[in-house]
Amino acid sequence: MLGELDDDLRLSPYTGWTRAHWAALADRVLLAARRHASASHARISFPGAPGGYGPDVDALEGFARTFLAAGFRVAGENGRDPLNLMEWYAEGLAAGTDPGSPERWVRLDEHDQAKVEAASIALVLHLTRPWLWDRLTPGVQERVVDYLAPAIGAHYPPINWIWFQIVVEQFVGSVGGPFERGDIEAGLALTDGFARENGWYADGAERAYDHYVGWALHFYPLIWTEMAAGDPAADARRPVYLRRLERYLHDAVHLVGADGSPLIQGRSLTYRFAAAAQFWLGARSGVATPAPGMLRRAASGVARHFADHGAPDEEGLLSLGWHRPWRPIAQSYSGPGSPYWAAKGFLGLSLPAGHPVWTAVEEPLPVESHDYHRVVSSPGWLVSGTRTDGIVRVTNHGTDHSHPGSALTDSPLYARIGYSTATSPVLAGEHAEHPLDQSVVIITGSGEPSHRTGFETLVVDRLPTGTLVGASRWQAHWVDPDRTRPDHGYGRDGRVRFGPWIHLVSAVRGPWEVRLVRVSEAGDGKGVLRVGGWPLPGTGRAGEATATATATVTNGAAHSRVTGGRGLDASGVTPAEDASPLAARILVPWCATIGPARPGTWYDAVVFLGGREPDEPPAVRRDGAATVVVWPDGTTDRLEAPLMTRTNGPSGGVL
């Protein structure tokens, strides 16, 4: 169906995709889902091993998440429904909410995951009210309200889940059912505390920044104001939410690679093109900027990236994976129905064909038009995009899904020093739990690397030359993790042993990072200092053990290199098998001290990720207490000691 459509390079010169391509993709996913539905359509059980919550939850997810796609599809056509989606899902609603049906759904007071899925059901019932809800029999309407009602007064975790309660109760109240105004007001007050600088939200009280910022924490507030339009509280909040979204989107469009890949960072990556939802939300909500053509370019780029890499697959199914199936990407809560939260990426289809986001000519992404160095202060990220290769890189000094002073294991999804649109962190195998890629660690005599979660952010800034600079410090620690707790994608606690403090400074320009590291007086954690670089599929080589030890990984599309300065005299390339969704085998370059790190000494390493073999690296030298960096483009930066040791948190200002 999708393959039968020609690219439209007049309207969409970057992706070729139009609204027809999006509609064809949605229809393909929806028709494929029907083949796995129960007799009355209430349960959609996709193939694959059950998720951590069992097959009943999996089947509910299959219904509720594909229902999102169906709702967006019909709403944007003003009720036109050639696939008979509303009648098909109406049968499922009737059976799923019937306590006596063999296809009945898990209830909200039986399993917490039902609280998540209930929000999707309520949202679609709102969007398609004239064509679905209003045509249900009174008995089915009553059963639907009864199914959703346990949201009232229930406990929801103080994260993005609060919005699920707000959306459900808002819908139930709108159709004359019971709801508790106090729940909504308390939930709104709680979510106000998630707001951070420049339009960003944290997913709760921790430094939790990932794709949930766009596909949940911006998505639901503005959708709720639509549902509650006319309510003074909703009408007063909408301009605030809109300003936040507009500011956030200026960062978000800088986090998409030229090939359409989103940043490979954070949990729930198997939701794939749900990352497009934030751009459609901007169009639906009427942000002034970015322009509609850029918003569609970003959204279509994300979806086409996955479609061109096998997601959905030949049968139209979305597996647990990134491109093709790769089960280790899943968290313990993920089952075969979970990937269908990707349906949020179809939000654009809720907009009619004449909407400006569909009629405007695509505009280039920032990474397609120029190089940039961007400070994103809330998550503590230094963002570097390079036009020649279309790669976006993030150097991370502010995100770990924890808080300063904690001592957890490092989650590869949050606590690595670098993330990009061209690489994936090591997510499985030995080096997922024992940091190697994009890390600075102390290695014990038994070979165990330290962790950095709980670090303090010292600075995230831009120098007058445009070079980005960030710094953080942490007490190296080793954790015997508690494995009885479920894996939700972030670090684990357990029995902890502490070592020396590590101070890290990053100077970033283009594809290069100069990484400066100092270790405090060594205690129980005395050991080798190792600096890990970007992981890539490909071939690797290591230079001789000299004062300029170099390790390189190269393939046809990208190159990764680490060059150690004085004292980082060892280097190597370490393979990891079945550790990344991007390839069966990846390689990680690194450099290290030959013996224990010398306390109080500044070590330097140059880390590279680019689309071609690098030329001369930056030159780094010490000048008294300062470090001088001469970049390949001739720019010179002097990093003074106060910059490298001050504690002022994320700022985003200019020194």
Structure description:
The protein is globular, with a radius of gyration of 25 Å. Mean pLDDT is 94; it is low at 544-548 and 648-655. The protein is of the alpha+beta class and 655 residues long. 28% of the residues lie in helices and 22% in strands. The protein has 15 helices and 20 strands. α8 (212-227) runs parallel beside α10 (277-285) and α10 packs antiparallel against α11. It has a nine-stranded mixed sheet. It has a four-stranded antiparallel sheet with strand order 1-2-3-4. Strands 5-10-15-14 form a four-stranded antiparallel sheet.
Helical proportion, percent range: 25-40%
Order of neighbouring strands in the sheet with most strands: 11-12-13-16-9-8-7-6-20
Unreliable stretches (pLDDT < 50, length at least 5) are: 544-548, 648-655
Q: What does the main sheet amount to?
A: 9 strands, mixed
Extended strand count: 20
Radius of gyration (CA) equals 25 Å
State the end-to-end CA separation.
54 Å
Outline: globular
- Which percent band covers the strand fraction? 15-25%
Structural class: alpha+beta
Mean pLDDT: 94
* Number of alpha- plus pi-helical segments: 15
Write the layout of secondary structure elements.
Blueprint: H1 19-34, H2 55-76, H3 85-96, H4 113-127, H5 138-148, H6 162-174, H7 181-192, H8 212-227, H9 232-252, H10 277-285, H11 292-308, H12 356-359, H13 366-369, E1 372-376, E2 381-386, E3 391-396, E4 418-420, H14 430-433, E5 439-443, E6 456-462, E7 468-481, E8 494-509, E9 512-519, E10 528-532, E11 539-542, E12 550-554, E13 559-564, E14 570-580, E15 583-596, E16 602-610, E17 619-623, E18 626-630, E19 636-639, H15 641-645, E20 649-654
Parallel strand pairs: 6-20
Antiparallel strand pairs: 1-2, 2-3, 3-4, 5-10, 6-7, 7-8, 8-9, 9-16, 10-15, 11-12, 12-13, 13-16, 14-15, 17-18, 18-19
